[in-house]
Amino acid sequence: MADEKDYHGKQNYVMLLGMIGLLVIGMVVVSKLGLSRNTSVMLIAGLGAVQFYLVLANLMHLKYEPALINLVAYLSVVFILLFIFGVAPDTLMIPLKITE
Amino acid sequence: MSDVSIERVPKGRLGVWFLIAGELVIFGGFIAAYILARLEYPEFGSKEAAGALNPIVGTINTLILLISNWTMVVAHEAALEKNVAKMKNFMILTLVMGLVFLGIKLGYEWPTDFHEGHTISSAKAIAGAEAGGEVMKVSLFWSYYFLMTGFHGLHIVVGSLVIFFVMLSCSGGENLHRVELAGAYWHLVELVWVILFPMFYLIK
C-alpha cells in the first residue's frame, strides 16, 4: 500500500479556490457583455473548461494519482466527447418533430 | 502524475476513482444530450426559458458550493495533521453549506419556477394548450433543467450523507484517509456544477 504522503504536494487552496471563484464571476460578466452568441458561448465554455481542469486536477488531486487513474478519469471525458461528436451528425441532419 | 504504481494504490482510493469516472459518464450523457438538443434548436434556451432563471441566485449558489469545497479541503488538511476536532468542525461546515445550497435550490428556485408554471413535464400541458412547436421546444429546457439539477441535488444529498458517516467513523482519530475520499466525491459535485451552471444560467 502506498503511504498517504506519496500523494500530496502542498497546494495553496485559498489561491486555487479564489481563482475558480474569479472564473465563475468572469463567466457571469461575459454573459452580460452582450457579445455575439458564438463568442459568448466560446468564452463561457473556455472559462468553464479551465475551472473543470482546476477542480479535477487540483481539488480532486488527480495530478497526484498514478497514470492509470488519470487515464480512467480522462477517458470518461473522452467518451462523452465521442458521444457528442458521434451522435451529432445524425441528430443535426434529421430535424426532430416533437409536436407532430 | 504520481510515480506511485497502480498496484500500490489503496483499494478505497481506486474504487472512488472508478465511481467518479462512472458518475462523469452518467452526467456526461445528460450534458451531451442537452448540448445536442441546443445545437438542433439553438432557440430553445433563449428568452422564455434560460432567461427565466435568475443568474444572481445561480452565482450565489455556485459560490456557496465553492466555499463548501474549501471547507472540505481544510477538513482534509486537518485530517492529515490528525487534528480531529478541526476536521469535524470543517466537515460540519461543509454539510451546512451543502444544505444551504439545497435550501436555495429546493426552497426558493424550484418553487419559483413551479409558480411560473415550469415543471419537468410542463411540455405536454403547454403544447396541449397552444399546440405550437416553439412552445414545446422552450419547455424541453425545463425538462433538462429539472432532471439535471435534480440529479445533481441528489448527489449533494448522497455526498452529505457520505461526509456525515465518514465524520462519525473518523471521530476516534482512525481511518482519517477516508476524509480525502469523501472529499473527492464532494469535489465531483462541484465539478459537475461547474458545467451545469453556465449551461443553464448563462448561455442563452
Task: Describe what you observe in this structure.
The complex is a heterodimer of chains A (100) and B (204). Chain A has 100 residues and is mainly α. In chain A, 70% of the residues lie in helices and 0% in strands. Chain A contains three helices and no strands. In chain A, helix 1 packs antiparallel against helix 2. The longest helix of chain A is centred in the C-terminal third of the chain and has 27 residues, at 67-93. The model of chain A has no long low-confidence stretch (mean pLDDT 82). Chain B has 204 residues and is mainly alpha-helical. Chain B has a single domain (9-202), classed as Cytochrome c oxidase, subunit III, four-helix bundle (Four Helix Bundle (Hemerythrin (Met), subunit A), Up-down Bundle). Helices cover 78% and strands 0% of the residues of chain B. The model of chain B has no long low-confidence stretch (mean pLDDT 85). Chains A and B meet through helix 1, helix 2 and helix 3 of A and helix 1, helix 2, helix 5 and helix 6 of B.
Task: Give the topology, please.
The complex is a heterodimer of chains A (100) and B (204).
Chain A: H1 13-32, H2 37-59, H3 67-93
Helix pairs in contact in A: 1-2
Chain B: H1 11-40, H2 55-80, H3 84-115, H4 122-130, H5 133-169, H6 177-202
Helix pairs in contact in B: 1-6, 2-3, 2-6, 3-5, 4-5, 5-6
Architecture of chain B, CATH level 2? Answer: Up-down Bundle
Shape field of chain A: flat
- Class derived from helix and strand content of chain B: mainly alpha
> How many strands, which pairing sense, and closed or not: the largest β-sheet of chain B?
none
CATH fold title of chain B: Four Helix Bundle (Hemerythrin (Met), subunit A)
What is the rounded distance between the termini of chain A?
60 Å
User: What is the CATH superfamily of chain B?
Assistant: Cytochrome c oxidase, subunit III, four-helix bundle
Q: Treating each run of at least 4 consecutive H or I residues as one helix, how many helices of chain B? A: 6
Number of E strands of chain A: 0
What is the helix tally of chain A? 3
Separation, N- and C-terminal Cα atoms of chain B: 38 Å
Query: Residue-averaged pLDDT of chain B, rounded?
Result: 85
Proportion in helices of chain B: over 70%
State the shape of chain B: globular
User: What is the string of SSEs of chain A from the N terminus onward?
Assistant: HHH
Find the structural class of chain A using helix and strand composition: mainly alpha
Largest interface: A-B, 58 and 62 residues
Query: In this structure, how is the largest beta sheet of chain A organized?
Result: none
Tell me the fraction of residues in β-strands of chain B, as a range: under 5%
Q: Please give the radius of gyration of chain B in angstroms.
A: 20 Å
Order of secondary-structure elements of chain B: HHHHHH
